[in-house]
Specification:
The complex is a heterodimer of chains A (about 80) and B (about 250). Chain A is α+β, with helices and mostly antiparallel strands and about 80 residues long. Chain A has one helix and four strands, in the order H-E-E-E-E. Chain B has 15 helices and no strands. The chains are: A alpha+beta (about 80), B mainly alpha (about 250).
């Protein structure tokens, strides 16, 4: 019985550990999608994001467009096409 | 010859004489009571005189009808009832006519075509009614302004700003982007009030609406209560932006 409980606990911990990053990635993709849309750039949906540094990402869109999204020294969000 | 002639016709003559006498007696009796009926007409006319004149045709027509009916009444009943009966007829309409106007006051158009005289009292009666109806109307108007007052409490800019910052429905980049766009819009208003930008409030309303639409589209699925509050505060926020004095205090 105790062995079964330990197995379930391990499985839950693993799923949480593995799904956490994916949830964070989804949230980031959604955030970048909204940002690019707010800036009025064509994108569709962001399918993947590569982190360059803090507040600086390369976003790949579903329509194959790629944008660098970052916060400039003035504190403004900027998206430049790559 | 005369005797012969008188003897056979004597019963006929007697009967004829009796008939003539009876007819003459009946005619004299009718002549005695006919003059009594005439004063009733005069009394009726005198009674009608103080009453509204505009309907003389009805009183004139009525006396003509009683003339034909009177002999029957006179022959059957004593004089007193004959005088009383015609009198109430003219009086009754005189009394009744003023009464209907107040009753018909709520619907003047229907009563107006029937009596012009009755319409005159209706007009003053209708005016107070209209005044009475108009007086509660301002109360309603006064009561209406409290309705927008509840909108004022919904507009708590500081709370809204705080909730926008804390909501998890929008990512960091999106929040920053929105903040930049809000600042840009405020710069436009500032330039407009300072005279640096030649535009109108109507033209500034469009970017304001677009920005709110962006915010709402981001919030409506993930944070509906905040989206609802922003929607309710939409006009209040515009009221601040479009008022130079309020905008300075912003």
């Amino acid at each position: 019985m105790s062995k079964r409980m330990n197995g379930w606990t391990l499985a839950a911990a693993l799923s949480a550990f593995l799904s956490g990053p994916s949830l964070a990635a989804d949230a980031l993709a959604k955030d970048l999608t909204s940002t690019i849309a707010l800036l009025g750039l064509p994108c569709g949906q962001v399918v993947s994001a590569q982190r360059l540094k803090d507040n600086d990402y390369i976003a790949t869109c579903s329509d194959k467009n790629r944008y660098r999204v970052f916060v400039n020294p003035e504190g403004r969000v900027v998206a430049t096409k790559q | 010859m005369l005797r012969r002639l008188e003897q056979p016709f004597s019963p006929v003559i007697r009967i004829a004489g009796l008939l003539i006498l009876s007819l003459a007696a009946a005619g004299c009796a009718g002549m005695d009571r006919a003059p009594q009926a005439e004063p009733t007409r005069i009394e009726a006319k005198q009674d009608r005189a103080p009453a509204p004149e505009p309907e003389p045709q009805q009183p004139e027509a009525k006396p003509e009808q009683p003339v034909a009916a009177k002999p029957v009444q006179v022959a059957s009943k004593p004089d007193a009832p004959a005088v009383v009966q015609p009198a109430p007829k003219p009086d009754a309409p005189a009394v009744v006519q003023p009464v209907p106007p107040p009753a018909a006051a709520p619907a003047p158009p229907s009563a107006a075509p029937n009596n012009q005289v009755a319409a005159k009292p209706e007009a003053p009666a209708a005016k107070p009614a209209a005044k009475a109806a108009a007086s509660p109307a301002p109360k309603k108007e006064v009561a209406a302004p409290p309705a927008p007052k509840p909108a004022a409490p919904t507009l708590d800019l500081a709370a809204l700003e705080k909730r926008l910052k804390e909501t998890s429905a929008i990512g960091v980049f999106t929040k920053l982007t929105l903040k930049n766009q809000v600042d840009a819009l405020l710069d436009q208003f500032r330039g407009f009030y300072q005279g640096r930008i030649k535009t109108t409030l109507t033209q500034l309303r469009q970017p304001y609406d677009q920005l709110l639409m962006k915010v709402l589209s981001l919030l409506q699925d993930s944070d509906p209560p905040l989206a609802r509050e922003i929607t309710q505060s939409r006009e209040a926020i515009w009221g601040i932006l479009s008022d130079p004095d309020k905008f300075k205090n912003l």
